[in-house]
Amino acid sequence: MAKNRKAKPIASKAKATTPSNASPSSSQPASTLPTRSHSPPPLVKEEEEDMDDEPPVKRQPFRFFDLPSELRLRIYEEVFHITERHVMELYEGKQRAGNIVGLDERPDPPLDLEPNVNWFLVRPRLSLLQVSRQMHDEAYRVFYSQPMRLYPHHDRFFYTKQPLLARIPPRYRNIINTMEVRFGKGWSKIPKCQNTEPSLGLRDCTNLRLLKIFVQCDPSDSFFNGFRGKNANEDTYKWFCMEILRGILEQVPRLETVEIDAFPGIKQGAPLITALRRTIEEAGKKLVWGPLRGWEEQPEPLLGLQQMMAGMSIAEAPRVVEAQA
After folding, report:
1. How much of the chain, in percent, has pLDDT values that exceed 70?
2. Where is the composition biased (Low complexity) (predicted)?
3. Inter-residue contact 300 to 222 (CB < 8 Å)
4. Domain-wise residue ranges, the chain
5. CA distance 221 to 174
6. What are residue 48's phi and psi, to 5 degrees?
7. What is the pTM of this model?
């Protein structure tokens, strides 16, 4: 039988090894030697990956039509109305427009066939009407309540066949309450679109209350002698403007007020201004003067001896009787 042998434990003697280049004097106790940190580096990338794995928060759309109707109407007015500041910023830039004093107090410019304004200002606003049927029904009345120019004034569309009023549907013509007409430009060659025919659509403007007339020049003045063209005299353009005004007043019976304004070079007693004023008074409409000239009612000037006596505070001037020999 084999004898049981006890296994002797193998004692491994750890030999202290020192680097060959270390001097014996540099040896220090183990407790004083600096220890190397074995903690893992911060998991920055893992945290970023965890954040990327989180689903993004889905924002709910703003429920615009949950607002009260009065507040929605106020927002429509701020968005759809084109002011004088908008036009000045388009042509002059925001910095120059900001230096103009009283720009916000100027009246809104009328809608017209003007390429730059229509492309950069009108077109984006009209696209909002296509958002939904409800927005269209609420906002189109606000947009078409702005002033509109009856005949085009821009050179590109001055001789067009159809003015802006003839291009829009009758449904939108009913909303117009202010319209502008400019007289003077093209006096030597009047465009055919400047008429009051039924195709223009004036009878559809049932809510039109204010007509603004702006006179740029008066060809009745003697300055235009020799430039009026063939078969034209000093009264030709004046009678044309009177016929245009009569046609508007006849087709828009609810028109209440007519405003007349002009450039500073035109006097209140000019033949064209006098003829327009007489036409308005014959139709029984209210006449007001525009802000540019600011004409006020003045008494007719006294002439001759009557004027001299009035300056002397005498009530009545004596009549001058011619003595017969």
Report:
1. 74
2. 14-35
3. no
4. 65-146, 147-297
5. 38
6. -65, -40
7. 0.72
